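Researcher: For the record, we're logging two predictions in this thread. I'll number them. Prediction 1 follows.
Model: Prediction 1, sequence and structure:
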Amino acid sequence: MPLHSFLTNQFLSLEGKLYSGNLSEVQYRIESALDRTQSLIVDLDPLEKFDAAGAYMLYIASEKAKENNKEIILFCKENEMVKLIFSFVGIPFYNKIPRNNNKSVY
């Protein structure tokens, strides 16, 4: 069951499930990807299962990245389930890929 696939050095697409049962595994993969870049875009659209614990893990990972002068951009354009969870827990995400300082937050 692949949970992620790398499309470029700066883009990580999460697939399958991100929930309380696999947080540490996915967090490790995100941190490993971030070790190779300053800015990592995490595409959440392909997720089939997602819960509040997954959202909080992503938020904590992005805050930890900021402390290390790095950036994790949480991206979701179409997945209504992901948008609903993020809205419910109050975590911001992007619905467009930000370019330089022109950021569009959903």
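Researcher: Logged. Prediction 2.
Model: Prediction 2, sequence and structure:
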Amino acid sequence: MPSLTERDKEVIWHPYTQHKTMLPPIAIERGEGSLLFDENNNNYIDAISSWWVNIHGHAHPYIAEKIFEQAKKLEHVIFTGFTHEPAVQIAERLLKILPGNFSKIFYSDNGSTAVEVAIKMAMQYWRNKGQVISDKREETRDKGQDSASGISLTTYPLPLRKKILAFKNSYHGDTFGAMSVSERSVFTFPFQDYLFEVIFIETPNANNIQDLKSFIQQNGNEISCFIYEPLLQAAGGMLIYDAKLLDELLSEIKSHEIICIADEVLTGFYRTGKFFASDYLENKPDIICLSKALTGGTMALGATAATQKIFDAFSSDDKTKTFFHGHSFTANPIACAASLASLDLLEKEECKKNIERIINQQKEFCLQLPTTNDKLQTKNIRQIGSIIAFEIIDGGDGYLNNISAVITQKALQIGIYLRPLGNTVYIMPPYCITEEQLNKVHEFLLKLQL
């Protein structure tokens, strides 16, 4: 009988994987807390929360119970013309805690789609503000026309903002809109000729903040929206930047009525030490994107929150101003139930104490980690909340540095799962990781020899 790993090789195409050189995937049979167990009952500490999603660990009994209860009542229903309790309840709870004056939640499937929704909202916002639609077909001879519907488009003489602003080193997802607003990199290279143009600027620092503000002053009236990962650029290399200077930049951007989109898909739900990274900032976004930890990592769910101002631009007797976007599994009741359960756990004092303990343990480890020694040379040791990161000085900086696979393999041999971004090593543990388990991860890195 072939093993699960052998069967996998015959039928599966894995993400972010070069199959010609990949090592056989480990067959995971179950999870419990911070641990993953393979088919031979070997266990591995999940030190990266399985792609940054499992904030409460694996197979949490409370979340599983709530998922089971919901599955017995309503597993799914179309979300156009229908609603249900879990969707309304999670929206009500999110709107109370989100960093800003949000009024509406739009559901989707994951982080990339949450970003797609946000970008489309921002782009259509300006279109709706500056366009009148007529369905009088006799007018279409002399005006622009949607040939499929026969609807003519008449435009007010208002400036239509078309430019989009984003940070260099950003990553917002793998769908086309999300790729377009992400740094041109190895992730986007095969598709770069098909992506729409975006203005990329540096994250703010003491040396460039005045230049960035001047750029906004000169070009602000042409920019529709600005999308940013607040304080932490994750897939771009776990890059941390200054909250005060981001606030200063946002203040200038908002003064030009540019729509601000905060991509908090990773940074939400206490990852940075506060409930949301935007809680560190005085200037709040107009749109915010959530996913990953939204359901505690148990189900796929995305959410895009918008202010009343954004929503009002779509509320009209003119049906063509409708936000024509949706997903088959929008607001899936089981996913919403998982999200409610995850929020319940986040509110518990035990969870908050664990987060604080992890932050302190990580801080202590950063002080122990040498910048150079005979065993391991590191640089740029940094921390934000429960997340730490640093670079290994071995080969060039970047995602394609093969040292990532070497470190992953060495860690697996002693029961730890780490997946560096090239030569950038990071630890982003679930909040249930024990002191002993996190110490084991730290000790592995302190003793690492390459």
